[in-house]
Amino acid sequence: MTLGHPHSERYWHEVETFDRERLRELQLEKLRTQLVHVGENSVFYRRQWADAGFDPRSVRSLDDIRSLPTVSKTDYVQSLREDAPWGSMLAAPLRDVARVHFSSGTTSAPTPVCWTNADLDRWSDLYARSAYSQGIRADDIYQVLFGFAWFVGGLGVANAYARIGATVIPGGSSETERQIDVMETYGTTAVSGTPSFMLHLAETAERLGRPLSGNRVGRIQVGGEPGGAVPETRAFIERAWNAKVFDGYGSLEFQPIAWECEEQSGGHIAEDFALAEVVDGETGEPVPDGTPGVLVLTHLDKQATPFVRWWTGDVVVRDSQPCACGRTLSRLPGGVRGRADDMLVIRGVNLFPSAVEAVVRKFPGASGEHQIVLDDSMKDPNTGFATGIKLRAELPADDADAAHRLENAIRAELTVRCVVEAVPYGSIERSTHKSKRVVTA
Ligand SMILES: [Zn+2]
Fold it and tell me: I need a labelling partner for 295 at 20 to 30 A (CA). Which of 333, 395, 403, 438 fits?
């Protein structure tokens, strides 16, 4: 089919409903072509694969790439340094690079990621496909509420909705009141933006006495942060806007990864664009559907800055059963559940230190400073698995029962067993950068 036209009334592209076997065949064919391209054009991968004794022409199955090391953000930053400013992963000549976006660079120098015209065309088509699956059609009036400068969000979605034929208003992510004016005046029916900006718009509109529930916006595509997959946050935005919220998941390196369809039951992975592995964070071995693991992605057709076995660090749960919408592309129910480097597993319950922190922070009398201590006293002696957590927390010295109440609070809110060790105020080491919240005894 030609890019830019829907395949049917319901589906943008026929690949969305391929049976899994046919999809895997397509993935293998694309993977082989892609790896040859990468091996021929990227200095970084050519060297890495030579070291690993890997010949891209020898690939016979999708599992063959598991012999390759994963590539992380640290590797990417390193590759940028060794061949500044574009990096040794670049696999297209600079004259073919048509666009570059940058990371926000909160902890390091902003990292560039490049697209050729073919890459941009593909990106737009994938986003158009996701918007189409959410019910967007040519008669929609669509206001982009993602930022445009540097960030991948704004231009990415603007081009995609235009491809469907919707009327696109590139609003951006500031000038809150003007955005509300435009929505009302022009009858905007669909928007995209971060969950934070959607909440801020709703709050502002409420304060101005012009609640958003009264306008025509019926569909909101959110992304850029995990809020859209958090049920409480989603419900809040849906109520405030009187509209459906669709969670989206992408990154600078992969645009897009997964977007929800009208069923709102977890984003469909763009599996014809990115080969997805879900692996155990410790062993790197694949985990079955339904089990949390780290998402590892390989581009199947990206020319300019391709990633092979990109370690996203994001913990997801995959479901490869067909969706009620008829699409067969795997889904990620619950979106991104957290970051791999942070996650603990206690009796099968995934526990992120941030959740413990939330309980400690609001506990009366606690300073907020705390550490999760991993030691043998909280492990099943037979299996070695953790059965609970030990929590060291600064609590008031004159309140002997505080530790007990904090234990109960953790158990009630997080459903994990907890033993609290109360320590005096000021006894846990402070950090000006990132606090070490998990320690091994
Ligand atoms: Zn679906």
Answer: 438
